[in-house]
Amino acid sequence: MKTKKKTATAAAATPKDPNRYPKGWSRKRVQKLAAHYENQTDAQAAAEDEAAYHNAQTTMMAVPVELVPAVQRLISRKRAG
To answer: Alpha-carbon distance 69 to 63, whole Å?
Structure first.
């Protein structure tokens, strides 16, 4: 009876990502997003902020920190509903 020797693979050598991502997200997607913002010039970042401010589909508002989790839950329910 022959036994196969175990060989190290690249997957075995690479540790599993300990992070948990929202549905549809992955380490690669997060890294791509981070790179986008890290490589933005100040002018590009300001233009992006300005465009978001003038977007008629969104509203910017201040929310007390202690209420943020409740607001996030409300938004989640609205999106799911």
So the answer is: 10
Three-state secondary-structure class, residue 43: helix
Token match 């997957």: residue?
Answer: 11
Q: What is the mean pLDDT of residues 62-66?
A: 96
Q: Are 27 and 21 in contact (CB under 8 A)?
A: yes
Look up residue 13 and give its DSSP letter: H
CB 28 within 8 A of CB 37: no
Structural tokens at position 21: 């991502």
Q: Which two tokens stand for residue 20?
A: 């948990």
The DSSP symbol for 14 reads: S
Task: Flag whether pLDDT at 1 surpasses 80.
Answer: no
Q: What are phi and psi of 7, to 5 degrees?
A: -115, 145
**Residue 13 confidence (pLDDT):** 73
